């Protein structure tokens, strides 16, 4: 199966530090790896409506929801590129992940089984020097991957507040060169890591 990377951009502004760092990492991918980039600010999802206990589940066929649904199913690797907003993912990304819970019940699509074994990655830029403050964002992505039975490649962290700052973070740029080369293990919930 040809590797296909879906880059989900979750910033409220274009060409922000997180996107710049993600694009630096993507430059290192082999030319035969397909890439699709979707900016959630340019393709906003409607407010998520939890229909978990209703029967009105249909496959999205039009609009941004259908675009993201189809792109997600087609990807072998999903890269969540979200700035650190209040110590977690952006509202755009949170809404996209909320849609996953609805897609679990889409008729004719075993979304969870389809996603199992695929890889979730993260990229984020933050204004803090202490990367520990990104732990909630990392936890959100790791636990989402664990629930879906996906692999988790970790989060590429960079420092930057003002536009272009991350391009001066030489450590982050060095990590970007090999970020997608690493073997992504099967994601596990933290309590599984402690008790096993």
TrEMBL record:
Q: Does the keyword Flavoprotein apply?
A: yes
Annotated ranges, domain NADPH-dependent FMN reductase-like: 5-102
Single annotated GO MF:
oxidoreductase activity
Pfam families linked: FMN_red
Does this entry carry the keyword Flavoprotein? yes
What keywords tag this UniProt record?
Flavoprotein, FMN
Tell me the protein's name: NADPH-dependent FMN reductase-like domain-containing protein
Protein species of origin: Streptomyces sviceus (strain ATCC 29083 / DSM 924 / JCM 4929 / NBRC 13980 / NCIMB 11184 / NRRL 5439 / UC 5370)
Q: Which InterPro entries match?
A: Flavoprotein-like_sf, FMN_Rdtase-like_dom, ISF_SsuE-like
